[in-house]
Design brief:
Order of helices and strands: HHHHHH
Strand content: under 5%
Helix content: over 70%
Largest sheet: none
Number of helices: 6
Radius of gyration: 24 Å
Length: about 170
């Protein structure tokens, strides 16, 4: 009976975790993207902070990431422009192919494709802004990271000594 109850609780907890992760995907993807970019930009911030105030160094790192995202967005925009032109050329072939498979395509569905592309682009821009904001906050929080980690009590977090050693190796 106890084993059955523990198994049921385990599956319930697993289902809850999967549900929460799925529902939080709109936030978790930008969060992990910002975390990755912060890990990449932190050495740049540290080097710049040696020659200027840290907030200015963080602003420069965020602007560098913004420039990279803008360049990537420009490349994607050119790609979409070419794909749109190509789509109009291939539309009759696509409609014939889909009709041969027995899948009807309405004019409304075809006309909806540009709206869907615009919606996806707007979503990408808003997610990029969220990533850049989180990136700035994460870089600001890495100030005195070694000191913050050293304040963690040893029994509370058994891997603190390894973390401290890793931070010493990085810097």
């Amino acid at each position: 009976m106890a084993l059955k109850r523990n198994t049921l609780l385990t599956f319930g907890a697993l289902a809850a975790i999967v549900f929460v992760l799925r529902e939080a995907s709109a936030f978790s993807l930008p969060f992990f993207a910002a975390l990755f970019l912060a890990a990449l930009a932190n050495p740049l911030v540290d080097r710049l902070a040696a020659h200027m105030p840290r907030p200015l160094a963080i602003c420069i790192a965020v602007l560098a990431n913004l420039s990279a995202l803008a360049a990537l967005g420009g490349l994607l925009a050119l790609s979409f422009k070419g794909a749109t032109r190509r789509f109009t050329e291939l539309r009759p072939l696509l409609e014939a192919l889909m009709a041969s498979w027995g899948i009807p395509i309405s004019d409304a569905a075809m006309a909806d494709i540009p709206r869907q592309i615009a919606t996806g682009a707007a979503t990408a821009v808003s997610q990029s802004v969220l990533v850049l904001l989180m990136l700035g906050f994460m870089l600001a929080e890495t100030t005195n990271l070694r000191k913050k980690v050293s304040l963690i009590p040893q029994p509370l977090f058994p891997l603190v000594s390894e973390l401290r050693a890793g931070l010493s190796d990085v810097h």
